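ingest -> validate -> predict -> emit
validate: passed (alphabet ok, no gaps, 260 aa)
predict: started
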Amino acid sequence: MKSNKVYIILIVTLFLFAGILYLLIGLPSRNVEKREITILTGEKTAFQLKNGYWQAVNSSYEIGKYDWEKYSVYLDDEYSGEYYLWNDGDNFRLFDLQKQAVHYTEKMLALRANFNLNVKTFEIFENIDYNYVLEMLESHGISSNESLTVNNYLNVDIDSDGKEETIYVVSNAFIEEVEPETTFSFVFMIKDNKTYMLYEYQEKNLFGNALKPYIHSILDADGDGSYEILLTCSRYSIEKPIYTLYKFDNQKFKKLASDE
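emit:
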């Protein structure tokens, strides 16, 4: 009789333990998988999070499915309102709720999600303190005398820990005064005096192979409270820029989606 009671207690304990594990691990995981978001930019870039997976939407047929849907639109990182979007083959156009065309010249980000949206506003500064930049150049065998076309930074709290990180963008892409042997671009973050590489490009300089990066948007793209970085890289001529979404996770940046 006593052994039966012990057996029952063990079974109940195991069920309770399994239930607690589900509440701590399984339920949050299922909630994450239920989060969905569509991210659109003015240059007909489309990223989608669905069933826990990110994808870049590239086909004209699939992108056409976003036409005349309503989105929360941010212009230069400020919320502008609800708009309909329609793609003209090259870009997404804005229309108000009466479906009247709306002209815009600002940087555009359109979002639709089943969770609360958060988009950071940020200011870009010209870099006058070259210490971290010089360290980056030297670590890649690049002369400190190299001419730069981009050398700026911004401060932002990426991981919502209450402390701002600094993100640097450095490049010699599209330089006109000289003909460098290599073309390079680096985007990196300084956090607690440590360097974390977000993006790097370094190749022998050939006509048309340069990539010039800049931070397009900073947003909580998956609803977890931390912020992802939408990076765009301009290319020569009229080629469409490359957009890539990055997440800082486990002390490193990882690529979530790219239309490269």
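The two ends are 69 Å apart (CA to CA).
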